[in-house]
Specification:
The structure is a homodimer of 443-residue chains. In chain A, strand 23 and strand 24 form a beta hairpin. Among the domains of chain A are: 140 residues, FAD/NAD(P)-binding domain (3-Layer(bba) Sandwich), CATH 3.50.50; 149 residues, FAD/NAD(P)-binding domain (3-Layer(bba) Sandwich), CATH 3.50.50.100. Chain A is 33% helix and 24% strand. Chain A is an alpha/beta fold. Chain A starts with 10 loop residues before the first strand and ends with a helix. The first copy, chain A, is built from 12 helices and 25 strands. At the A-B interface, strand 4, strand 5, helix 4, helix 11 and helix 12 of A face strand 4, strand 5, helix 4, helix 11 and helix 12 of B.
């Protein structure tokens, strides 16, 4: 079955509604093309704030926007909630679930990355990662469930295991999660429990490199580690996780092996390219890098397919600087804009110089009033860095429709030190009913 | 294993953190007693607004408050996230999951009601009801998924089936759901789709009695039906659902049988008492009514157990008026306050006259700017009724911590006709991982 396409001269299909795909779609909204945006989900997720959902500050809808709502005024654009499962670059078709075909003249693939457990896929259920709304809800459930269990048990060792949180990976996500859990345990919930002292909570941040935030300048890594320690996080660098059981995690530093009894382990250590990368490699012969990302040309197209583009976290772009561009939102946004502009120019018979990333700086937040900022020409940390972080995020949220609610929620949380969005959900529903429904909806 | 209780002179155990249980706990916060509140969930849910979560206006956390947060200042009160599974009125103990015992001097049971499918339990997965956060997320998923599917399919009959929503039950929940879906389809999302005209959506409200809102005065039922029809809802009264398949629902009116092709069926037709009712009947010999509710004494205690109280939706209270009190929030709140006061008085050797419900009136909302209000001495509908509805709900929310965000979200939704909280979630996560986790967390 073929989905009927409009008789437009040029059909652009975009796969993925993250920052890359959405910015590409927005920048094609007034072009003389026919755009189809395909995403498995019906919403764009503002992933930089996902850790705030995982730790009870915001609700999923606060950082999500329905893709249809964002693009409703672009009458040349159709949104399809579907999944791309195959690609035929010769016929110029994309295969969706249930075998439907979508024809394209230009194809933009922006399906991002998922977690990577470095060959230990059995850790996946033990130590959830943070990429989707479901991940965030699951992490939120585990964090708040741990305090509930600690309050109930009487064995002090078991209690301490419930009050021990291990975060694997000292990049921005790990730092943000560790800081937010520390604030929760030490400042927000202590007076809500009767049997436990939540300030006895241990939060361990495990990083394999010799410092947290490895891509940042060493001085900011040191400042971040200091700020984390002040919040009550134990930072353990140059350490590798070697084993996980239901009761504990084992870490190794050189010859030293340590077993840490912990009920909650969170994974913020590695990413690998989404499955679309493999499909692209197989069907177009384009090489992938070590983590499965697609190595793209200077204009973000594929070597032998100038009408297929890969952008965002899925793209390995190594044409500027001494290493590939990082998998962060600003890179994806700028690549989406670039490809949209390139397609518009090409239709006018014009060319565009290679893509060039304008680095606006790096930000990582550690806790309330604490962040580190690297703007290239200047680096700093503390309250001012935190303010910059807040305004930068509100600025980007303003593109969509959620800023007002997020601002009010943040203001409210800031003043009351509240964290109201800490529901433990997902268990009450009957499991067999859930399964039946999921089964049914897959058909 | 026994959970250690403090050496307080009087131990009150409350089961259930809904309106009844929470109001009882709050009114015992300064009494010379030791309170333990047990709930399966870690939050109180403001159920009257749950339909707004199911239809994409609010997030679950907007209408939920962590029980610990509400009760944190009551130092005589402990919150336990656990489930009561048995009761021994002789030993005065309550059994929790995993066999732990909780001793009490006074016991307040407020575990509410769940859906009732009148002997057709196979309908449960086909036509979800609306009682929990998970129910609301599931209904939200089904509603928005239906529009996504309709946009994709090409067969006009299948398309119409996806665009047909059947709501079974014309009480307040059914009326609210039908009105909210009609607004969505007719006013909020039409310009977001390219292949379908969402104003062709059929919303059918099926009621077995001869009018919607049967407990209300007939004139308000008529006004509600008018308002629904203006919004685009087809009201079908004196009709019974006789069959459901994956593709359709069959309704009967006298001798006439009609088959309605519909992919989405929502259940708002009946409730039955929670399982605690049966346990109470078995262990105390207290009679239950037809729907399993516990028939209580004039002071809300059990006939032979003056220290066990049943309040809220689970209680059948027939000592005033010509029929038992309805299962609405104000009844539960007043009963919670009453029992708390009775316990306080009893400790001072005093008595309290029987419980008396002060009826503040009934409210049902149909859509933006439309509601019906029955204050007893005066009845009206329309915009003023809607304003009263809005302020009544904000007033009750003010008791907790969510009002500011809800007000901003409502204001925002009202001005923009927005409905941003319409995430289709719950499918992206790997099913086997979910199962494993759920399994693990049950242990």
């Amino acid at each position: 079955m073929t989905i009927p396409s409009a008789p437009s001269p040029h059909r652009v299909v975009i796969v993925g509604g993250g920052f890359g795909g959405l910015y590409a779609a927005q920048n094609l909204g007034r072009a003389p093309v026919r755009v189809t945006l395909v995403d498995k989900r019906n919403f764009h997720l503002f992933q930089p704030l996902l850790y705030q959902v995982a730790t009870g500050s915001l609700s999923p809808a606060d950082i999500s926007t329905p893709l249809r709502l964002v693009l409703r005024k672009n009458t040349n654009t159709q949104v399809l909630m579907d999944e791309a499962i195959d690609l035929d670059p010769m016929k110029q078709t994309l295969t969706l679930r249930e075998g439907r075909q979508l024809e394209y003249d230009s194809l933009i693939i922006a399906t991002g990355v998922s977690h990577h457990y470095f060959g230990n896929d059995q850790w996946r259920t033990r130590a959830p990662g943070l990429k989707t709304v479901e991940d965030a809800i699951e992490i939120r459930r585990q964090i708040f469930y741990a305090f509930e269990e600690a309050e109930k048990v009487t064995d002090p060792e078991v209690q301490q295991a419930w009050l021990t949180f291990v975060i694997v990976g000292g990049g921005p996500t790990g730092v943000e999660l560790a800081g937010a859990i520390a604030e929760l345990a030490h400042h927000i919930i202590p007076d809500e429990f009767r049997n436990i002292d939540t300030t006895r909570t241990r939060i361990l941040l495990i990083e394999g490199m010799d410092r947290v935030l490895p891509p940042y300048p060493p001085e900011l890594s040191a400042k971040a580690a200091d700020a984390l320690q002040r919040l009550g996080v134990t930072v353990k660098t140059s350490q590798m996780v070697t084993e996980m059981t239901d009761e504990a995690v084992t870490v190794r530093q050189g010859e030293t092996v340590e077993r840490i009894a912990a009920k909650t382990i969170l994974w913020a250590a590695g990413v690998k390219a989404s499955k679309m990368g493999e499909i692209i490699a197989e069907k177009t012969g384009t090489p992938l890098d070590r983590t499965g990302r697609v190595i793209v040309e200077p204009d973000l197209s594929l070597p032998k397919h100038p009408n297929i583009f890969v952008i965002g976290d899925l793209a390995h772009y190594a044409h500027t600087g001494d290493r590939p561009l990082p998998g962060v939102a600003p890179v994806a946004m700028q690549q989406g804009e670039y490809v949209a502009k390139l397609i518009r120019k090409k239709l006018q018979g014009q060319l565009l110089p290679p893509f060039k990333y304008v680095d606006g700086g790096s930000l990582a937040v550690i806790g309330q009033n604490a962040a580190v900022v690297d703007l290239g020409f200047v680096r700093f940390s503390g309250f001012l860095a935190w303010l910059i972080w807040v305004f930068a995020h509100i600025y980007y949220l303003i593109e969509f429709d959620n800023k007002l609610v997020v601002m009010v929620q943040w203001g409210w949380n800031y003043l009351t030190r509240g964290r109201g969005a800490r529901l433990i959900t997902g268990e009450a529903m009957d499991l067999s009913a859930k399964l039946e429904k999921m089964e049914k909806n897959r058909v």
